[in-house]
């Protein structure tokens, strides 16, 4: 994969649930999109820090690191997803697809009695998620795994994801079909996608694939989507 770089401002606030940040005096930095999203072993130095925030009325402290998506705060899209969708309760088996350092997985396990599978291709992210689950007191119910290490016969009652849109539409569709096919018959999947990154077209596409999808929230240019399992569309 070639090197793709994006320019982004250094954030210095840790009040990331609301998505507020200010540029640091040091100006701008460049981060590798490939390193954040796709590398099993990020090439950047493992520089760690702590961020704090409030999710579903609870205070959390997370360890983050360079080479992991949105290390300085909760990504705005993820914050909107957690704000627009009520906390789940009860038992079941949940999937946090693209877990990063694990804020969704940890919050899901804290709020419910479900077993949560936190899946990512980034091993540093999985290590951080396991550490953060231990800090949150839910390490026994948060299982970190590479995609191919999830048991093949496992079905999910809920899927939660801020999907990696930047992998490109073909790979995104392939990834979503792989995991939507493992949604339980009465299961539900929650996604957040930027409108300018194809949120509306993705909603239509999932419905066409046999997973009826509706928009349940919209804020700051993001769409919050709810998909259910009606079975794969006829070929």
From TrEMBL:
Annotated ranges, domain Methyltransferase small: 60-226
Gene Ontology MF annotations: S-adenosylmethionine-dependent methyltransferase activity
Record key words, sorted: Methyltransferase, Transferase
Pfam families per record: MTS
GO biological process: methylation
PANTHER family linked: RIBOSOMAL RNA SMALL SUBUNIT METHYLTRANSFERASE C
Protein name (record): Methyltransferase domain-containing protein
Species lineage: Bacteria, Bacillati, Actinomycetota, Actinomycetes, Propionibacteriales
